[in-house]
Each structure stands twice: as structure tokens, then as C-alpha cells.
Amino acid sequence: MPTLRDVARAAAVSTTTASDALSGRGRLPEATRRRVAAVAAELGYTPNLTARNLRRGRTGAVGLLTPQHTAGLAYYMELAVGAVEAAHAQGVALTLLPAVEAPGNGLHVDGVIVADPALDDPVVRSLARAGLPVVTCERDPTPGAAHTGRVESDHVAVVTELLDHLAAAGARRLAVLLPGPETAYGQDAQLAHQRWCAQRSVPALAVEVGLTARPDRVRQAVTELLDAPEPPDALLAVPDGSAVTALQTVRARGVRVPEDLLFAAYAGGPAIEALDVTAVDLAPRQMGQQLVRLLLDVLADRRPAGTCEDLPLRVVQRASTTRPPRNP
After folding, report:
1. Most CB within 10 Å of its CB: which of 141, 182, 265, 274?
2. With contact defined as beta carbons under 8 Å apart, do 121 and 72 qualify?
3. What are 42-81's pLDDT values in tens digits?
4. Phi-psi domain of 256 (left: phi exceeds 0; alpha: psi -120 through 50; beta: other)
5. Order of strands across the sheet with 278-281?
6. CATH of the domain at 229
7. Strand ranges across the sheet with 307-310
8. Each residue of 292-305: pLDDT tens digit?
């Protein structure tokens, strides 16, 4: 197998220059980087990742921590897939971490990605105390929390956009299933709904079902809304995993969507798309990729600690919020 020294000799540069060119370090002319990369590809050179990590005092692995009870939820599964893809592309292993409190310094990882950190999460506090670099998906709602970096989306703006869309589609009594306030995502969804209702002087018709809403809780909430003296004519299910159960409950009651009830979900995914439900493309795969790249960039001093990146979202309108024209 060709070595780094073979690459340096063939490219007529020093071993240090060859190493810097292939790793992206140092201040080298772009032409030099391209020449070294071309020579390495021609020789079939593959870096020894274990040796490289030992030289840098690294493990060559990063951790991914997701909220408890999220196994099977489409968003977090897709986020993990994106994180694995980005880590593999840079020769780094990704380890899924259990959401249990443990000494952070006992983990054999160079840094940790935390998806939707919860308010005063003891596991996240443990990681911070151990001095491990932490990059979060959405901001940490814990007062005073400061981490290595984060990637976030403007959920207030997007929830507002969804509510505006439902109103424009004809909703006059709009109900919302909301996550709790333990995460920034949940806080932003609640804030957006409260502001939207206050600005229009309409009642804030909402039921909190939790971040990872249990099917029985969702069925109970939807049943209560439909049995109210003035039932809603539109329903937005915000928590991931709540929309399918909510839609099943609505249809089991003989309520037609969208003729009798406009229906939308916040978290999209294959199941939501198959049901032709208006939803938000949360881009979880892209989120996972951005999180890994940001963490690795900070570890390699390519980005400063405290960097915050934005992930734009879009509302995808489908049949569930498009009422057919009335017959004359």
C-alpha cells in the first residue's frame, strides 16, 4: 500500500506539505492541494485513520444523543442517517448514545451532537461538565447554557406560516396539538400559536400532548376537540408522530378531510406524504449532516466555537388543506 511518504515524493513536496494538503490544514496554494490530491488518487493512497487520530489525540468518533422515547420517530431516524453519512464521508465513526446520565468523560468520543436538548437535561449537563464539545440541534433552553455550536431553524416563523395557510384556506376555528415547553422547538411552537391568536383576537384553541405524543393521548385530545360545543374546522398536529393518529381519529368519527376539517402536520415524512397531508419539510437528513460538519469543523479549528447555523424550512401544501370548490 502506498504511504504518505510515497505521495510526497511523487508530488515533489515534503511529507508535512502532503499531509496538510490532504487534510485541509495549513496555508497552501490551491494548486498544490490539487496536485497532491491527484497524485494520491493516482497512487491509490488511503490515509491510516487510526494513526492520524492517535497523532491528534483523538478517538476518531463523535456521539449522537437524541431525546428519550424517540425511537421510531421519522425525524430523529432521518437525522441519524444524515449524521452517519456526513461522519463516514470524513472518516469519522458515529456512536449513538443512550439518554441516561453518565460521566461525560467516560465516553470515547471527541464531541457530541445533541438533538433537541431539553430544559435542565442532566445528561447534557454531564457532557458539559466533562468538557466535551457539544453541538446542538436547536438551541438549549436551559438558562445560561453555552455550547460549542448549534444548527437551528426558525420554528416561530414556520408555525406562523402554517397557521396563515390554514386561515387562508378557510379555517375559522383552528385547533392545535402542541408539544410541551421542555425544548426550544416546543417553546417556539407554543409562542407562535399564542402570538398568532393574540394578533387576530381569536381564542387560543390548543391541547398540549408532549414532544413525543403517545397515541392514546393524541386520540383523547382529538376526541375532546371534536366533542366540544364548537368543534374546530381545522387542526394542526405539531409533535412528530402525532399527525397519523390524529388523522385516524378524525376519520373514525366520520369527519371528512378537507371538506369538514382542514388538516395539517408540522413534521413531514414518508407517512405524511403518503396520506397527502400538508406539512413542513424539516430536512432532518440535512440537519444531521450540518451538525456533524459543524462539530468536525470546530474540532479542527476551521470554525470558531459558538458558531450558529440556520437550516431553512419549507411548507409543502397538499390535498388535506385544499377544499374542493362548492357546487353552484
Report:
1. 265
2. no
3. 888 876 544 454 445 466 899 999 887 676 788 999 999 9
4. beta
5. 205-208, 174-178, 234-237, 262-267, 278-281, 314-316
6. 3.40.50.2300
7. 93-97, 61-65, 112-115, 134-137, 149-152, 307-310
8. 999 999 998 889 99
